[in-house]
Amino acid sequence: MAAEKSSIKIITLIAADGSVFEVEPNIVKEMKTVQSYIDELDQNTVSIPLPNVFGNDLAMIIEYCKKHASEEETKEAKEEFDFEFVKRMKSDDKLRLLQAASYLNMESFLQFMAKAIAAEIENQSVEFVRDYFQIESDFTPEEEAELRKENEWAFK
Amino acid sequence: MKKRNSCSANGLSIQHLYYDILVRIFMNLNVVELSIVSMVSKSWNHISRDPLLWAKLDLSRISPNAFNIPSVPEAWSDTNSSNKLTTLLKYALSLSNYNTTCIVFNYFIYLTDAHLVFVAERTPNLKRLVLPFSGKLSSVGVKTAMKSWRDLQSITITSVVKSRTIFSAIRMYYQDIIELKFTCNFEIRQGELLVKYTPNLRALSLRNVMVNLRALLNILNSLEKLEEVNICHSLIWDRVNGKVETYTIHDVRNRVNLSLLQKLIFCQRNRCLMCKNVNNINPRRQPYVHFEDLWHQDEIRSLGH
């Protein structure tokens, strides 16, 4: 990895609200957006502004990365952590974290969040999903009625 | 995605969720939930049709809350349930837009000719078919379905269909079957059918069922392209002079040469609990979900789901 080759010791991430996080290079390995930034530079320290990620969310993402980057942790401990991590999040948090994961281009965290969000809409109604994702239907009343007729089974 | 009015308090709106992120979320949903998200809006409807989401249509993953299927066979044999299944298939397959290459029926649904033919007409590119435990399939129904499939390669065969019926359909439409799994007993007759009509068979699973020794030796000796035969937890038996004899894996070893032996996958623990239970296929002794698990799992990865 490029991060290992270069002499960077500490990376400073600056969130949208100005809060600052100092992390070791192995923590940001998963953040491809950050990584590509680092790869272009050849300095001992770098600070990277992340205008699309809020401090609270970044703190959570770093916590996740630390746990998963650790070689001492067992697979079970990581799974246990994942479980608690999801439990701790509110619905709104999940959507924000997903967007952050997408912006930071973090493959496995993105996968993880997609699964957590899918769990939110399991067994839910169309109305719930619209409400959760803040989407207004753009179907005409006729189209909506037609869809509902085709899917009567879904409306028990 | 289309932009709409609202923005959440933090200034990041869900409208910015890109197509591929939504596909990632949708990848975790089952067919019922996919149908729900397809009704959310026009753009979501469009995304819910992404080919990635429909390559495998898995009805076994439907949760009982969304679509109540009791865990007993023939629970869905009444007209009302049958119609409900048709409606679900109709909508799901309209979203799939001919992109489905693998269909796994729910183990407990009651499959009729009408369902199978309906599915077949909308899945011309099907490669793998996993049949449910119960239903009523006729020879005409199976043949009509088989006519639509031109790339079928792999089937999990259950007691829902007679071997004669399915193999004559395979022969009629020259299906080049390379993988098979039987969840019903494997007799001399089945061995003969395989040798005749699936000459290119590469993988065969006869897991946790009763397997006739002569049938097993026949396919091992005759099917040259065979690479793997899974007989984990199965009971090998034969009728000799009117008497039923059972055979251990050691007995089988003595009857085939080394190169054929290497193709066999068997239970290393020999006489484990599952091995002992094979001739106890008695619903009063075991819940049906146990059989559903057997149907799901396989040591040959491509035959599990």
From TrEMBL, chain A:
Parts forming coiled coils: none
Highest rank taxon of the organism: Eukaryota
InterPro entries cross-referenced by the UniProt entry: SKP1, SKP1-like, SKP1-like_dim_sf, SKP1/BTB/POZ_sf, Skp1_comp_dimer, Skp1_comp_POZ
Residue ranges of the TM segments: none
GO biological process, one term: ubiquitin-dependent protein catabolic process
Subunit architecture: Part of a SCF (SKP1-cullin-F-box) protein ligase complex.
PANTHER family the record matches: SKP1
Protein name: SKP1-like protein
Gene: LOC101508600
UniProtKB/TrEMBL annotation, chain B:
Pfam families assigned to the protein according to its UniProt record, in alphabetical order: F-box-like
Superkingdom to which the source organism belongs: Eukaryota
Coiled-coil region list: none
Domain F-box: 11-57
Protein name: F-box/LRR-repeat protein At3g48880-like
Organism of origin: Cicer arietinum
Gene for this chain: LOC101490603
